[in-house]
C-alpha cells in the first residue's frame, strides 16, 4: 500500500487518478483469530491498530455489522477536549489529546484535527467558581485552561450576545485552546487503512449474533458470516454494549438512550470555535462545509432507535437563538440520532469482564469521540496483556461493585444528567 503524499497525488494526477487502490482490503473471514474486536467504529478500529502496532498482533479481525463508522463515530458532533476535573478522566483524555495532536501524521491520513478552542460558558458567579476549580484541577494535571471574564468571552466569540439583557447573561467562561474538532469519518477511515496495512482483517456486514464460552472463558463468536474461534474478544459496540455483553451472560450498569444532533444550512465562516452552554445544554461549532453543527441532551427514555424527536430539536434550536439571536433565520437542514451507552456515573468502562477472554470498551455517554485514540491505546494494552494500563485502571467495570465510581459531574446515577 503506497503512502499518501504530495508526490503520490501528483503522480496519480498525471494518470487521471485511475490508479488509486482501495484504502483497505475486503477479506473473507478466517476460521480462527488471535483477537477479535466487535464493532467497526473509531474505538474498535483504533484498538485493532494499536494491537498490531504496539503489541505485534498479526491475526486480528474487526467485525462490523454495518459499514465502518456507521454507528456513533459517524453521527457525533466531533468535539475534542480534555477539560475534566477528576484525575483519572483528566489523564486519560489528555493522553487522547496528545495522540490527536500527531494522529494525521501517525496514520498518514488527514483527520482534519482543528484546535480551534472549546469554551464552556458560565452564566452565574457560582458556575464561574465551579469552572475556576475545574480549570485549576486541569492545570495541576498539566492541561491548558484559561478562565475568561465576560469581556474576554466577548472578544473570543464576537457573535455571542453578551449584553445584560440577553436571556442568559454571560458571566465568563472556561477556555481550552487545544480543544476543537476532528473529521469523524476520516478518523474511522484513517484507523481502518492503517490497521489494514498491518494485516488486520476488517470485515463489514458481519453481525455478531452469539458469544461462545467454555469453562475457561470465551472460545469464539457466532456471526452472520459463520463461526470464528478466538480466545480474546473485545466489545467496542457503543450503544449495543449491553446487548453484546448479555450474549456472554454479563449484565452491565449501562442504559441505552438516543442522542440527537443536527446541522443548519451552510453559511459563510461565522463561528471559529466550539461553544458549549451547559446551563441549558447546547454545543455548537461550524463545520468546514459551513453548517452549524449542534447537539444537546439525550432523550429521557431508553431506546435503540437511531432517530430524533421534535422536542429535542426545538430545545437545541431555542438555546442557539438565545445565545446567537442572529442565527434565528437559519434553517435546520438535517437531524439524526445515535445510541448512547450511558453509565451510572457518566464515565466510560474499559477493561476486563467477569468472563475470561472477554473485554469491554463502552459506556461512553456523551463523549467518546474525543477519547478514540486513547481508548484504542489502552484497550489494546488490556486485550494484549490481560491487565489494565495505568490510564484505564480506574475505568474498570468493578468500580460499580467496589464503590470507586468516577462521578465527574457529581450527578449520581441519572444518565440524562451526565
Ligand atoms: C449525536 C451524537 C453526538 C455526539 N457528540 C460527541 C462529541 O461532540 N464529542 C465526543 O467526544 N463524543 C460525541 N458523541 C459520542 C461518540 O460519538 C461516541 O462515544 C463514539 O463515537 C463511540 O465510538 P465507538 O467506536 O465506541 O462506537 P460506534 O461508532 O457506535 O461503533 C460501534 C459499532 O459497533 C457495531 N455493532 C453493534 N452491534 C454489533 C454486532 N452485534 N456485531 C457487529 N457489529 C456491531 C455498530 O454497527 C457500530 O458501527 C456523540 C454521539 C452522538 C450520537
Structure description:
The protein is an alpha/beta fold. The protein has helices spanning 6-14, 42-55, 87-107, 125-140, 150-156, 184-197, 241-247, 310-323, 372-385, 399-402; strands at 35-38, 60-63, 79-80, 118-122, 146-149, 172-176, 180-181, 201-203, 208-214, 217-223, 226-229, 233-235, 254-264, 274-277, 282-286, 292-302, 332-343, 349-352, 358-362. An eight-stranded mixed beta sheet has the order 5-6-4-14-15-16-13-17. A six-stranded mixed beta sheet has the order 8-2-1-12-19-18, with helices on both faces. A three-stranded antiparallel beta sheet has the order 9-10-11, with no helix packed on it. The radius of gyration is 21 Å and the shape is globular. The two termini are 43 Å apart. The mean pLDDT is 96. The protein binds flavin-adenine dinucleotide. Flavin-adenine dinucleotide (FAD) is lined by residues 38-44, 63-66, 70-73, 75-79, 207-208, 236-238, 240, 244, 259-261, 295, 338, 364, 366-370.
Binned, the helix content reads 25-40%
The total beta strand count reads 19
The helix tally amounts to: 10
- Subunit arrangement of the protein: single chain
Largest sheet, described in full? 8 strands, mixed
Bound molecules: flavin-adenine dinucleotide
Biggest sheet: strand arrangement:
5-6-4-14-15-16-13-17
Supply the helix-strand structural class: alpha/beta
Q: Give the uncertain stretches in residue-range form.
A: none
Series of H and E elements: HEHEEHEHEHEEHEEEEEHEEEEHEEEHH
Compute the gyration radius: what is it? 21 Å
Amino acid at each position: 500500500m503506497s503512502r499518501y503524499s504530495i508526490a503520490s497525488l501528483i503522480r496519480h494526477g498525471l494518470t487521471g487518478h485511475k490508479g488509486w487502490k482501495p484504502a483497505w482490503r475486503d477479506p473473507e473471514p478466517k476460521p480462527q483469530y488471535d483477537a477479535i474486536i466487535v464493532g467497526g467504529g473509531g474505538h474498535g478500529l483504533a484498538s485493532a491498530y494499536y494491537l498490531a502496532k504496539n503489541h505485534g498482533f498479526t491475526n486480528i479481525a474487526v467485525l462490523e455489522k454495518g459499514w465502518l463508522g456507521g454507528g456513533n463515530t459517524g453521527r457525533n458532533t466531533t468535539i475534542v477536549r480534555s477539560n475534566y476535573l477528576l484525575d483519572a478522566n483528566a489523564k486519560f483524555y489528555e493522553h487522547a489529546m496528545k495522540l490527536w495532536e500527531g494522529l494525521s501524521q501517525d496514520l498518514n491520513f488527514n483527520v482534519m484535527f482543528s484546535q480551534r478552542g472549546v469554551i464552556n460558558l458560565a452564566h452565574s458567579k457560582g458556575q464561574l467558581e465551579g469552572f475556576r476549580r475545574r480549570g485549576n484541577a486541569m492545570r495541576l494535571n498539566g492541561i491548558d485552561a484559561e478562565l475568561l471574564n465576560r469581556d474576554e468571552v466577548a472578544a473570543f466569540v464576537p457573535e455571542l450576545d453578551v449584553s445584560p439583557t440577553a436571556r442568559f447573561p454571560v458571566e465568563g467562561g472556561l477556555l481550552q485552546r487545544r480543544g476543537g474538532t476532528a473529521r469523524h469519518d476520516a478518523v474511522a477511515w484513517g484507523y481502518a487503512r492503517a490497521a489494514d496495512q498491518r494485516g488486520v482483517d476488517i470485515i463489514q456486514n458481519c453481525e455478531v449474533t452469539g458469544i461462545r464460552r467454555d469453562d475457561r472463558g470465551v472460545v469464539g463468536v457466532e456471526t452472520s458470516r459463520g463461526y470464528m474461534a478466538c480466545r480474546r474478544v473485545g466489545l467496542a459496540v457503543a450503544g449495543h454494549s449491553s446487548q453484546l455483553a448479555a450474549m456472554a451472560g454479563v449484565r452491565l450498569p449501562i442504559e441505552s438512550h438516543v442522542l440527537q444532533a443536527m446541522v443548519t444550512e451552510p453559511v459563510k465562516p461565522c463561528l471559529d470555535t466550539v461553544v458549549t452552554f451547559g446551563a441549558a445544554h447546547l454545543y455548537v461549532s461550524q463545520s468546514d462545509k459551513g453548517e452549524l453543527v449542534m447537539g444537546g441532551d439525550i432523550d429521557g427514555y431508553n431506546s435503540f432507535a437511531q432517530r430524533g424527536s421534535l422536542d429535542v430539536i426545538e430545545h437545541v434550536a431555542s438555546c442557539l437563538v438565545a445565545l446567537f439571536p442572529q442565527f434565528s433565520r437559519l434553517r435546520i437542514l438535517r437531524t439524526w440520532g445515535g445510541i448512547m451507552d450511558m453509565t451510572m456515573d457518566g464515565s466510560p468502562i474499559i477493561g476486563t469482564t467477569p468472563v475470561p477472554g472477554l473485554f469491554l470498551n463502552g459506556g461512553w455517554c456523551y463523549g467518546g469521540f474525543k477519547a478514540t485514540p486513547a481508548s484504542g491505546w489502552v484497550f489494546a494494552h488490556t486485550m494484549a496483556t490481560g491487565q489494565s494500563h495505568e490510564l484505564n485502571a480506574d475505568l474498570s467495570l468493578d468500580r460499580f461493585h467496589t464503590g470507586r465510581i468516577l462521578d465527574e459531574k457529581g450527578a449520581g446515577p441519572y444518565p440524562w444528567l451526565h
